[in-house]
Amino acid sequence: MKARGVAAIAASAIAALCLANSPEAFAGQPCNDSPLTPAVLQTAMATAQRVTGDLDRRGVQVALLGRVGQDLSKYGLKYSHVGIVYRSAPGAPWRVAHLLNTCGTNQSDLWYEGVGNFYLDDLFLFDTLVMVPPEDTAKALLSRLSDGQTLRAIHDELYSLVAYPFSTRYQNSNGWVIETVAAASARDATIRDRGQAQAWLELAGYKPSEMEFGTLTRLGGRMFKANVAFDDHPDSLRFAGRIRTVTVESIKTFLKTQRKGWDIFEIPGRR
What we know:
Blueprint: H1 3-18, E1 25-26, H2 38-58, E2 62-68, E3 81-86, E4 95-102, E5 108-114, H3 115-118, E6 125-132, H4 135-145, H5 148-152, H6 173-185, H7 194-203, E7 209-212, H8 215-224, H9 235-238, E8 242-245, H10 248-256, E9 263-267
Keywords: Signal
InterPro entries: UCP028477
Organism: Cupriavidus metallidurans
């Protein structure tokens, strides 16, 4: 990427950091305030440059990006959080739309920021999972991303890290993305709200990831963490310590089964 491209990524990251005087927002990693080091900034900018350069070469306008916010290997998972990267036209700046949890609360909001800033959240690894939609879904996604009201029709402010994917009580970051993808993918109906998006996903064969939690983990999470709730899960699952939620891995598995193929690949980070 040319120098001005790198400068644009850095500028967008710095601008986003300047907005961080408002309550901090996190997704896919613990709620903490780690200082930003020059090494992390350099790695984040280099990762953004590598990812957007790859998208440029492929002629992509919109894609899903998965990042590794924390080590989830004990659950058999790698990527913790997914956002939607897009640009309004060829040559236009790249931006990421994603749902973030306001630190220490059960609230969330949609954030729009530069790609560099997407990699500045104290990540465990800088590997990236890229999921590129087929042309018709890409057009529908870009249309939704250009209309804030339509985009927010699929957003719910009440947040739970382990939100059940077939309930509208709470929403997590990955749930917002797959419900937005559902709204952009439906050809036999118009999806206007979360309930309709979830119904479409269930009919289309989406299967959430399942994890097992001990009773103490479940009770501790509910009692001491505002952003973790289990009361939206069916009793038969939660009383057995089984939690089903939307993960990046379950999104990837679902998209691989779709009639019109998604292009899915990884971009390794620096080691």
